Amino acid sequence: MRIRVIGGGLAGPEAALTAARLGCQVDLYEMRAVVDGKPRLTPAHQTTDFGELVCSNSLKSESPNTAPWLLKQEMRRAGSALLRIADQTAVPAGHALAVDRVEFSRRIGEAIAAQPRIRVIRDEVTALDQNENGTKCTILATGPLTSDALSGEIERITGSGRLAFYDSISPIVEAESIDMERVYFAARWDKGTADYINCPMDREEYERFLDALLTAEAAEAKEWEKLEYFEGCLPIEVLARRGRDTLRFGPMKPVGLRDPRTGRTPWAVVQLRKENLRADSYNLVGFQNHLKFGEQAHVLRLIPGLENARFLRYGQIHRNTYIQAPVLLDENLRLKKSPWLLFAGQLSGVEGYTESIATGLLAGIYAASLARGEEPTPAPRACALGSLVHYITHADPKDFQPANITFDLLEPLEEELRKKVRDKKERHRLQCERALAAFDGWWGAMPQPAAELSR
Fold first, then answer.
1. pLDDT tier at 111 (50, 70, 90 boundaries)?
2. Is 374 exposed, middle or buried (0-12, 13-18, 19+ CB in 10 A)?
C-alpha cells in the first residue's frame, strides 16, 4: 500500500500524514532542497521547509458559524495533522487563526520525520507515470509554483493545458520600528481579543497616501506583462485604480474599528497582524502589491505609525497555477482519464491555506482507500469539505476561478425554511448545523485505522 505525494507545501504534507495514519507507505517528494551547500528554492520561497507560508500567516476566521470556521471544524473532526499543528502554533489574532509561520513549518517537519511510513525524497519530479516504484496512486500537490518541467507534464497528461493567474505577498514590518503613539490595538467590532495594530488615517492623510500609491512605479514587467490576478487577492494599487474610495471599502475599511483614544471611527485604517508569538514583526493585512521596493518604502511610510518603518519583507507577485478542475477531476479529486492520479491544494483549483490543507486531507483519505483496493466515498455535498470539492468539479469551465470556502458554495436552506428564517446569522447557523451533521454521518461510516496504524 504505497502512494506517492508530490509537493511539500501545505496540501502535500497533509496528504502524506493522513495516508500514513491510515496505514499507507508514502513517498513524499519536494523539489526545494540544499544542493552543494546552497538552497534550491522557488521565486517566492525563502526556505526548504515543509509548509512554508509564503503570503499571509492567517488561516482565517474562528468565529462560530462562519464558513472558514465550519471548514476547520470538519477538518479537526477528521484529524487534520496540519490544523492540529496550526492550533498548537497559534498567535493572537482576534477572531482569526494565525500562526507563527516559522514554528508552524518546524513542527510539520518534525511530524513528517517522526512518521516511519513516510520517506522524504528531495528531488524534482518531471514525469508522471503510473505505478512509479510500485505506488498504487499519486497525489499531485505542487502548488502555485509548479516547475516548468512538471507543468509541461501536467499539460501532456491532462490534454487540456493549464491555467495561470498571479498571486501576491504582503509586506512585513519590524515591530520596534512602529510608532506606537500613533496607532491603537483593536479587533473589528471588538470580536475576539484586540490583537491587531490599527493605523488610523483622516481624510487628508488617506488622500495623500492614495495619490502616492496611484503614481508609484510598478515592478519590472517581463513575465508579468499579462497579469491575470485572482479577484479575491488583488494588489492594492489595482484596487486603488478602481476608484478613490475602493480601498476604504476593502483592505482599509474602518468600520467597526473605533479609535478608543478619540471615540471616533477613522476615515480609513491599515491593520497590522502579528507574524509570530514574539510579536517582533507584523504583516500589513491585505497590502499585497506589485510595486518596486523603493516605491513601496516611500508609499507605506505615509501610513501613520509607519513613518520610520523597517521592512523585513516587501510585497511581491508570484505565479499561481491551477488546472481546469471542472473538466478534469471527479469528486474524489481524481483525474477522470487517469484515476490513479489525484490533485490537491491550489493546483486543484482551491484558494487559501485552509482550503489547500482541506483538499490534502481529502486526497490522503481517498488515496488510502485506493491503495486498499476500495472505491473512495466522497465527502457529502452538504458539508463544507464536500461543497468545496463540488465547486471545483462542477463550476462553469469557461469562467472557472479558484475559490475560498464561502456560504455561497454550501447548499442553501430549503425555500420554506429560508422564508421562515429572515436573520442571516441564524441561516448560517442552521447551514453549519446541517453541514456538521452530514460530515459526522460520512466520517462515522468511514473505515477507521487500527490503533497501531494511527500512531
1. very high
2. exposed
21 and 150 co-located in one domain: yes
Q: What is the pLDDT of residue 398?
A: 76
Give residue 225's pLDDT band: very low, low, confident or very high (50, 70, 90): very low
- Domain tally, the chain: 2
134 and 209 belong to one structural domain? no
Q: Are residues 128 and 257 in the same domain?
A: no
* C-alpha cell of residue 128: 508522471
Residues 6+ apart with CB under 8 A from 13: 28, 50, 51, 81, 82, 108, 111, 112, 360
**pLDDT tens digit sequence for 355-410:** 999 999 999 999 999 999 999 999 999 999 999 999 999 998 877 878 889 998 99
Query: What is the mean predicted confidence (pLDDT) over 289-302?
Result: 95
Calpha distance 130→449 (Å, rounded)? 26
Within 8 A by CB and 6+ apart from 177, the residues are: 306, 308, 309, 310
Residue 39 pLDDT greater than 60, yes or no:
yes
Residues 13/28, Cβ–Cβ less than 8 Å: yes
User: CA 9 to CA 162: how far, in whole Å?
Assistant: 20
Query: What single-letter DSSP state applies at residue 259?
Result: B
Helix then strand then coil, % of the chain, to nearest 5: 40, 20, 40
Separation CA 159–CA 451 (nearest Å): 42
pLDDT on residue 224: 38
